[in-house]
Design goal:
By secondary structure, the chain is mostly helical. It has four helices and no strands. α1 packs parallel to α3. The protein is globular. It starts with 11 loop residues before the first helix and ends with a helix.
């Protein structure tokens, strides 16, 4: 289930964005992961992309934009 989340509402998509794993992002998005999902604090995948691995967010953001990140 690509929408599975931990107790804080964080999904694999969020963790992949946080860690700069654009290949994982592509696989999750191909499996229809929700790019608009938010955690229990209201933070979405863009938050995790910006606050994750230094320098990794540009590639992640490009992948997310390809899949409808608003």
């Amino acid at each position: 289930n690509v929408e599975a989340a931990n107790n804080d509402g964080r999904t694999a998509l969020m963790w992949s964005a946080y860690n700069g794993h654009d290949g994982c992002l592509r696989q999750l998005l191909a499996a229809k992961a929700d790019v608009q999902a938010v955690d229990t604090d209201g933070d979405g995948v863009l938050y995790y992309a910006r606050n994750g691995r230094p320098g990794g967010w540009a590639d992640v953001l490009a992948v997310l934009a390809e899949h409808g990140l608003k």
